[in-house]
Write a structure and sequence with these properties.
326 residues; mainly alpha; Ferritin; 12 helices; 2% strand; globular; peroxidase
Length: 326
């Protein structure tokens, strides 16, 4: 159940109209990394988590709902940046606000150019936000990632928050309005907070790597292929233990072509860098498959069912369950 509160989460303000920046800000309204995309992504991901992982469902729905409030903040800011434009578009007098704002041939030509780039904005919308990006490309559900596995979805969410944060960081450089900067700074900061929330949630899933259930073939998981000529760069991504567990390390292949030839297309590649065998990987897959299936089957009933209970009961997170067991 959704309930709209008319007060904004953050008191969005602008110093003066700025139609050009309003057009740019559409990127965070109907763009690929904008607030609507985030809200819909987390909202959709929540459905698969509702029964087996109610704590993650609560997290995803809370953040999805906050993203809708951020969409309202962005829309309100765009509207204020276009303050008076809707009425002035209907005012043909030369002393109108829009005429003064775009006085001079160069300013008018620039606005015409931008209107041609995004014809729906101003030209067709009459000064209201449109569900497009800054170039007029309509919002699409193709922006949304929801794969039905939390170890995958939460990583997608980390990437989404990262991209949204950097877009705010970029667009803030195109306005000198201190009020607008303040609003965008708040929205950018909430992306950081959401990133931490998703990262913390991912850590409560054990194991959470690799994403999904199937394990990688240990003959290939630790190989780093030197696929470029010239000087080779080494780092924790291709030498030493890197992100692997104790006792495991990267296997650096200096000459991938020769390695492929010597191992008959890597078919005869031996296990290196880890003590895990292909057989052990298969056994772990079976155990994890059973665990993940049981998590879902334990809360899936045959016959009639219902989504909610009334009143709703409190949800206990995995970390709280561990504390109660100790």
């Amino acid at each position: 159940m959704f309930h709209h509160v008319k007060e904004l989460e953050f008191n969005a303000r602008v110093s003066a109209p700025d139609p050009r920046f309003a057009s740019l800000l559409l990127e965070q309204f109907g763009g690929a990394n904008g607030e609507l995309k985030a809200a819909m992504q987390y909202f959709l991901q929540a459905f698969a988590a509702r029964k087996p992982f109610p704590d993650k469902y609560d997290l995803l729905m809370d953040i999805a709902t906050e993203e809708l409030s951020h969409l309202e903040i962005v829309g309100a800011t765009i509207t204020m940046l276009l303050d008076g434009v809707n009425g002035e578009l209907k005012n043909a007098a030369e002393n109108s606000m829009l005429f003064n704002l775009l006085s001079g041939t160069q300013q008018k030509e620039q606005m015409i150019h931008e209107a041609m780039t995004n014809p729906q904005f101003l030209g067709l919308s009459g000064g209201t936000p449109t569900l497009t990006n800054s170039q007029g490309v309509p919002w699409t559900a193709a922006y949304v990632n929801a794969n039905g596995d939390l170890t995958v979805d939460l990583r997608s969410d980390l990437a989404s928050e990262s991209r949204a944060k950097i877009v705010y960081e970029y667009v803030m450089q195109f306005t000198d309005d201190p009020y607008v900067k303040e609003t965008l700074g708040f929205l950018m900061t909430r992306e950081i907070a959401h990133y931490k929330m998703f990262a913390a949630a991912l850590e409560t899933i054990e194991p959470n790597f690799p994403p999904g259930v199937l394990q990688g073939d240990p003959r290939y998981t630790h190989l780093y292929m030197n696929m470029s000529n010239g000087s080779s760069v080494r780092g924790p991504w291709n030498e030493g233990q890197g992100p692997w567990e104790a006792g495991e390390q990267w296997e650096y292949i200096h000459n991938p072509y020769q390695q492929v030839v010597d191992t008959h297309g890597l078919v005869d590649q031996p296990v290196k860098g880890t003590q895990r065998t292909p057989e052990e990987a298969k056994q772990l897959e079976k155990k994890l498959s059973i665990k993940r299936s049981q998590e879902i089957e334990a809360v899936t009933k045959s016959g009639s069912t219902q989504w909610s209970t009334y009143p709703q009961t409190n949800v206990v997170s995995p970390s709280q369950m561990k504390d109660q067991q100790l």
